[in-house]
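Technical annex B. To support the medicinal chemistry partners, we prepared a structural model of the target in complex with guanosine-5'-monophosphate, based solely on the information shown next.
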Amino acid sequence: MSEGVLFPVVLSAGSGTGKTTVAQELQRANPERFCISVSATTRPPRGKERDGVDYHFFDEGQFLSLVDSGGFLEWAVVHDHYYGTPRSEVEHGLSRGRIVLLDIDIQGGCEIMSTLSEAVSIFLLPPNKDELIHRLRSRGTEDEEKIKLRIQNAQYEIERGMEAYDYLVVNDVLEECVSTVTAIIKAEQMKRWRIEKNSSLYRAFHGGIKQ
Ligand code: 5GP
C-alpha cells in the first residue's frame, strides 16, 4: 500500500466471524502500514495472552480511573467485563504513520463513529447462516440452550452491524477478505476530502502549478 492519509479503522463482526484473525493478518502482511490498537480490559488473561500485547490487563480501579481522566476513546461492558480503546494507542499508532485497526465490538464501533468522523468502519459477515451456526456450535461443549442463545445473539449483532457500518465484507476465504479490506482502506485514502484535509499533495497542486 502506498503512503497516504492515516485514520483509524474499526473492524467488528458478530461472534464466530474471525475479525481478530483478519486484523492480525493485515498487520502481519504489512507491518509498516498497519498496527492494531491494544485494548484495555478487566477480564483475566486467557491461555498464552500477554499483558501489553493482546490486551492491557487492568483491575477495575485502574480501568475506572482511566475512564475518569478521559483516557478512553470509547469503552463498554462486554460479557460482564470492561473493555476500552485507550486514546494513547490510537494517537501513538497514527503518529508512527500507521493505519490503526480497532478490533472492537459493535457498541464501541458505534461510539468511535459518532466521535471520530475520519474513522472507517468495516463489519465482517460470515459466508452464510449455516456456516455461522456450524462455527458457533463447534466452539464449545455447552448445552443446546446456550448454543441457541449464542446463535440469537450473533443474529442480533449482525443485524445491528449491517445497519450501522460503512462497509460489509464477507469473511469466507481469509486471503480474499484481507485483500478486500486492504482495497477499501486504499480507496478511503484516495477520498478527496481526506486529501484536502491532510495532504501536502493537495497543497502542492491546489491553486495551480507554479512555473
Ligand atoms: P475477548 O474477551 O473474547 O477478547 O473479547 C470480547 C469482545 O470484546 C470482542 O467482541 C472484542 O471485539 C470486544 N473488545 C475488545 N476490545 C474492545 C474495546 O477496546 N472496546 C470494545 N468496545 N470492545 C472490545
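Notes passed to the chemistry partners:
The two ends are 31 Å apart (CA to CA).
The pocket of guanosine-5'-monophosphate is lined by residues 39, 43, 74, 76, 78, 83-85, 103-105, 107-108 (CB under 6 Å).
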